[in-house]
Records
---
Amino acid sequence: MPVTFDDLLTRARGLTDGSRRAVLGIAGSPGAGKTTLAEALVRELNGSGDPWVAHVPMDGFHLADIELDRLGLRDRKGAPDTFDAAGYAALLRRVREEDDGIVYAPGFERVLEQPIAGAIPVPPSIRLVVTEGNYLLLETGPWVRVRQQLDEVWFCGLDERERLRRLTARHEEFGKDHEEAVAWALGTDQHNADLVAATRDRADLIVPVGELTAPVGTRT
């Protein structure tokens, strides 16, 4: 049977019994809908009561542009080696193990295209953390330690033409002209997408984003 949004909510709730904090990862290629799916899950699971689910994106671990310039990696921004993967893994370990105080995670400002330190609080009341990013299932370098901190990883599956359409539109929304947006989506982004697609079979669940009974939008 097709996976429904209600199925996902039930599965996410089942990751924690309330006595321990669980971490759910959502992976997928750029433009596949990871962020919007994560936001929808967090919103629906929390409902109108006291929040018990938090969203901690991988994007907060982008290296700042000034560091990418120093390393000569600015034109590859978004590739695996343009993130602080070891820092991300360490943050996920803290999120899992430290629930006697607030753990602060970095966010990412899309208008500035820069990480923002200490932007996301994870208080002790949080029992489930939803994190999302391209490389949660990558088996190279410190990315291996990321997977070790995740109870499950779901992979966002989306028709390739639709993914590229969404991705191009997002680049245009945040300042690129159409030709530049298309070039980036088919160049740097596509190379990264190919890396991510090769990790699909390692996921615990494939989520057909374009076929869900609830809309999951157009973000990353």
---
Amino acid sequence: MATRRCQVRVSGTEVELLPERALYWPEAGLLAVADLHWGKPESFQQHGIPLPTGVLEDDLERLSRALRSTGARRLLLVGDLIHSRRGLTPAVRERIATWRDGHDVEMVLVRGNHDRHLKHLPPEWRMDVHEEHTDEGPFRFAHHPEPATGRYSWAGHLHPVVRLSLGADRLRLPCFHLSASVGILPAFSAFTGGLDMTRRAGERIFVIADEAVVEVSRP
């Protein structure tokens, strides 16, 4: 099924919000995602909590799909790439290294709070690391959603979701939350909780509904 992107203009620049839970900036050939939390199921499993397998495979396939569909030349990881040091088992490290070998793109990590658990990324992942943020044209990319003087900030960390209801039916769906100065990306990993977001004056919410990104019009 063909995916439906949502084009928006931010700081005078066209970007695309993708149903793969990613932001694409065509002019720069840049794909940005946040909160992948690689190794999270493995972290829980080491504490004796049984969790379904296949989370990493599903997330890597979705990330590959976003790279293929956009033709992005660069991948920017906006924090919390990993969940914990203990979750990076040899199998997880090897699987990600194999995935990395299949993608000839520049990859940059802006560290998030979870990434502080690991001083150095596995070298076979071939990722450049920025400790606090990176500035690109009119944008700043940082893990924590804070305004930046002179630039529009893209961030993660909050795992934004929106509650939708129709009669007795209720859904919590991942979303993009855009204010006047900060845009919050949805958590890329499907294995995360989320913070309920509401739309206030001057803000926009774009919900991810299956294969489409749809703006929520009501407050």
---
Amino acid sequence: MIEKMQRDQARSDKRRTLIIVAASIVVGLAIIAYPAIKLIQDSRTRDQAVNTFGVSASAASCDKIIDDKASGTQIHEEDGKVIDYPVSPPSSGPHYNTWAPFGKKFYTTEDRPPVPNLVHNLEHGYTILWYRDTLPQDQIDQIENISKAKLPDSSLGKFIAAPFKETDGAAWPEGKQIAFSHWSGNQQGQETAFGHRQFCSSVSGEALNQFMDKYPALDAQEPNGG
């Protein structure tokens, strides 16, 4: 009887060991596979144009572009100083000495730098896609895909997508979840420059593409930076 109990216990221990080993292998494969799958997905995304993501421009319910009289060229404030912008989101204005990293195109609420850092990027020809920080995750994922995709040649790769919080500035128009902004240079015969903003209700890579083609990276206060 004792020997039988010992044999049964040994078989039970063996089964338990096999289950643990099998589970460990499955978990290990999943850990290895996830980064590989992510790399493949990102590679496919980089081969797609931005206008393939989100809804069409006609379905995005975008407002007419707003032209703001620009100010603040080369007015660099110390990082941390409170800067109040007259429009929301800002399309020009005084900004911090430090700009957001030129190589980073997508930010979340966890890693986004202060708004005045991003305004410095506008001075160098960037277009910024601002999105409400309350946007559903599936739409934020679409924006992240846009940041990895093929940008129009006119952008020279100067693009940033970043969240915009209620505390960052005045309220946006009702129902608008996305905003584009760009800071243009002084055109020939023009005494002042303009910032440009456009609000949309839905994520639309096509609408973004059209905005960036209208306001290319070389149309900037300091186009050679970045």
---
Amino acid sequence: MKLDARTIATAALPLLDDGGVDGLTMRKVAGALGVQAPALYWHVKNKRELLDAMARVLFVNAVDGVEAPRRGTDWQDWLVELAGRLRASLLRYRDGARVLAGTNVSDESMWRVTELTLRTLEDAGFSARDVTRVFPILLHYTIGYVIEEQAQTGVDYPDGNPYQPDQVRQSVDAERYPLTSRMVVDVFASDPDAEFEHGLRVILAGVRTTYDIRPGT
């Protein structure tokens, strides 16, 4: 097997399901590839570079096949779909969002999709200055949402998941904090897919109003 950074990263991603980012080691990755750990250091110098390579694979997989909006496609719908693709890619592996957060994804696919997004926003009526503010907002919301979403699986808690709706309900005194009690129950019992899109729509509505973009443009 010919080793390169992408091959190593691709082998490392499934290992996240057993121990997450914190439990990932170069030795484990080497074992999955059937080689000795020193062989990896020719291609990724350390765990930081390994995580960068893994983030690159996650992002490339997310945007594979993404094209500019077709004629008649609403720019907001296109952005929601794009963010949804990224979320789906991150959810494939434990700590997928933690892998992407703060990493250096230097890849042609990143620049291509960024350019498509900026152009889509400009075509919708945003100024060249404003588009550079909108894109990071959507990216950071998506990564942050999935970090929280994956944390709520409770896999890092050896004594059980504290985010179970019944357990959350019992942790809040409903008589003293009735609004908070209702909120936390709703949050932890809600459909994450629906809540993710709802949050995106709220952000986009705010963006549209802030930058005075008329509906339909």
